[in-house]
Design goal:
By secondary structure, the protein is mainly β. It has one domain: Immunoglobulin-like. It is built from 2 helices and 10 strands; from the N terminus they run H-H-E-E-E-E-E-E-E-E-E-E. The strands form 2 sheets. Strands 1, 2, 3, 6, 7 and 10 form a 6-stranded mixed beta sheet that branches. Strands 5-4-8-9 form a 4-stranded antiparallel beta sheet. The longest helix has 15 residues.
């Protein structure tokens, strides 16, 4: 019984160290595959381009004795808009955001979706605790109203610290 508890403790510890939202990151695309994603993309009715904001919340917090320190993982907000700032086609919906830092890859499907007439996109939270100043590439996976799947990329986004 003691051996089982020790094994489970090690397993939980390793799963917690996998980065990101606490879930094991498996079946991720390679950095090479992500670098092949276009920076602009034609969809019916518009040519889309993407922009991002990437940051970590570095605000000091009060930690009570025995409490774990809050996570300060990467937060990514991706916005796609028509290249001519025209209204975008309706029905576009973000499904996943994937981020690379050098050879490291992190992805989340827990996207907080944002849509309006001129833009769509989403935000993901609880990413890895990469260093402030890291240059990140971001890919958004999305679908249109007919189920067509697309990807769009933004490159060289500098990870900021919010203090």
């Amino acid at each position: 019984m003691r051996r089982k508890l020790l094994f489970m403790g090690v397993f939980v510890l390793l799963a917690g160290c996998s980065g990101g939202s606490g879930t094991l990151q498996t079946n991720l695309p390679t950095v090479a595959q992500l670098r092949a994603v276009p920076l602009s993309l034609g969809v019916p009715g518009a040519t889309l381009v993407g922009s991002t904001n990437v940051w970590r919340n570095m605000m000091p917090t009060v930690i009570l004795a025995g409490e774990p320190a809050p996570k300060t993982g990467v937060i990514v907000s991706f916005t796609a808009r028509a290249s001519d700032n025209a209204p975008i086609p309706g029905g576009l919906r973000a499904e996943k955001i994937t981020v690379t830092n050098g050879d490291e890859v992190w992805a989340s499907t827990e996207v907080e979706i944002r849509n309006d007439e001129a833009t769509f996109g989403g935000t993901v939270r609880n990413g890895p605790e990469w260093p402030i100043g890291s240059a990140l590439d971001v890919v958004i996976d999305f679908r249109d109203s007919t189920g067509g799947a697309y990807q769009l990329r933004a490159v060289g986004q500098v990870l900021q610290g919010a203090y």
